[in-house]
Amino acid sequence: MTRIAVVGGGLAGCLLACVLAQRGEEVVVYERRPDPRTGTAERGRSINLALSERGLNALRRVGLEQQVLTDGLPMRGRMIHPVTGPLDFQPYSADGERAINSISRGALNNVLLDAAEKSPTVQLRFEHRLVELDPETGALVFETPRGRVHAEAGVVFGTDGAGSAVRGELVRHGVTSETLDFLDYGYKELSIPPRDGDFALEPRALHIWPRGRSMMIALPNPDRSFTCTLFWPNSGTSAFASLSSPAAVERFFAEHYPDVPPLAPGLVDDYQHNPVGLLGTVRCAPWHSGRVCLLGDAAHAIVPFYGQGANCAFEDVTVLERCLDNTGGDWTRALRLFEDSRRDDTEAIARMALANFIEMRDKVASPAFRLGRHLEHTLERLLPGRYVSRYELVSFSTVPYAEVQRRVRRQHGLLTAAGIGLSAALAGGLAGLRGRR
Ligand SMILES: Cc1cc2nc3c(=O)[nH]c(=O)nc-3n(C[C@H](O)[C@H](O)[C@H](O)COP(=O)(O)OP(=O)(O)OC[C@H]3O[C@@H](n4cnc5c(N)ncnc54)[C@H](O)[C@@H]3O)c2cc1C
């Protein structure tokens, strides 16, 4: 019997295998896909992501942070593209120095696979798709190119992503219940290639085209291209399906994203051939039975608008490690503690990610938003460590997500009180002046 089976050799699964191997555990990672280090990427499927402090902190613990950052591109702020008028750069931090990092998802997965493979106690089994799991006994059945394969494990982790088969099996056996809230929006990727061998847009920024009901973002890649992601409604006049001919695509972009067509010669081809991905929030409970545990997107997939899904999945691994330390390696207690200590935080980031969609598509271009950010950065400079914006706490710290929400509420409460106090003092002062006249 295998001691630990990790189902899903994506981002969380590989990091988990590395961490468990560091603790001397024997681990087998089962991955549905062929070895991605020998194949080609799937067309139009999120090729880069923003990695920030929580993810980096987890990678640091297994000595991989620097290797991963070598190919990362720091993005120090948002670059807003209005329909007309100049671009507007909004730094993420008060000092303008802190950056989130654009990382190739495939390269990150490959670094983690290499690291897991180097551990003498980790085995990787590709082309193993989990199809059955008995949560009581830890019996597993995989479909492989050579037919069905049976295995058994003392502890099973489901790190098989938002559409988790492990979660499906926990639900089928009555252990777990789940809700999947799909957003009424999908995403499609487009590419902006290098221009004259260089980046066609500013590479030190995350680019946003906020358009009210919809938006597009672009992140730089090490090959000097940009990957753009359109987040559009699934129905209505600005839905993907509403643009059914090349001419309609060209007309629409010329009207709503006029700076894009000159930079994206493959726009129509990308648009017509790249798939539309689903977006949604997964909630389920419990995440664990005595010996099976969900982790990462399998337990709590979120919408991507805070750039935190992978960061949160990596942070899960750090939290699990702490739970194992605190329970002396007692798996049943550790899995329970993991869920108890992590659930509120994953619910908090799920809420913040949904709220950030509205901010990104509707608010970032408004003068009121810009003024608010300016005020926040001024307060951060005046009250260092005492006033910290939500974005900073989420992206540049490891303060638990639920504590971030509480702290931001407290800060807003104090600011409102200070605002009321200031208004009252001003009103009193004015009345006094009038009385003296
Ligand atoms: C458009 C978009 C943009 C995003 N941008 C960001 C971002 O900027 N920053 C960020 O932090 N996050 C981002 N995310 C979220 C991030 O991609 C996920 O949160 C992260 O990949 C979760 O990691 P995971 O290991 O839990 O799941 P996955 O990365 O989905 O890995 C799951 C693995 O399990 C395998 N698998 C699936 N089913 C089976 C099976 N039955 N048997 C065996 N193996 C199986 C899969 O092949 C895969 O390798 C984004 C997501 C999307 C959709």
Automatic annotation (TrEMBL):
It catalyses: L-kynurenine + NADPH + O2 + H(+) = 3-hydroxy-L-kynurenine + NADP(+) + H2O. Gene3D superfamilies: FAD/NAD(P)-binding domain (3.50.50.60). Its EC number is 1.14.13.9. Keywords: FAD, Flavoprotein, Monooxygenase, NADP, Oxidoreductase, Pyridine nucleotide biosynthesis. One of its GO terms (biological process) is kynurenine metabolic process. GO terms for molecular function: FAD binding; kynurenine 3-monooxygenase activity. It holds the Pfam family FAD_binding_3. Pathway: Cofactor biosynthesis; NAD(+) biosynthesis; quinolinate from L-kynurenine: step 1/3. Its cofactor is FAD. PANTHER family: KYNURENINE 3-MONOOXYGENASE. Catalyzes the hydroxylation of L-kynurenine (L-Kyn) to form 3-hydroxy-L-kynurenine (L-3OHKyn). Required for synthesis of quinolinic acid. Belongs to the aromatic-ring hydroxylase family. KMO subfamily. This is Kynurenine 3-monooxygenase.
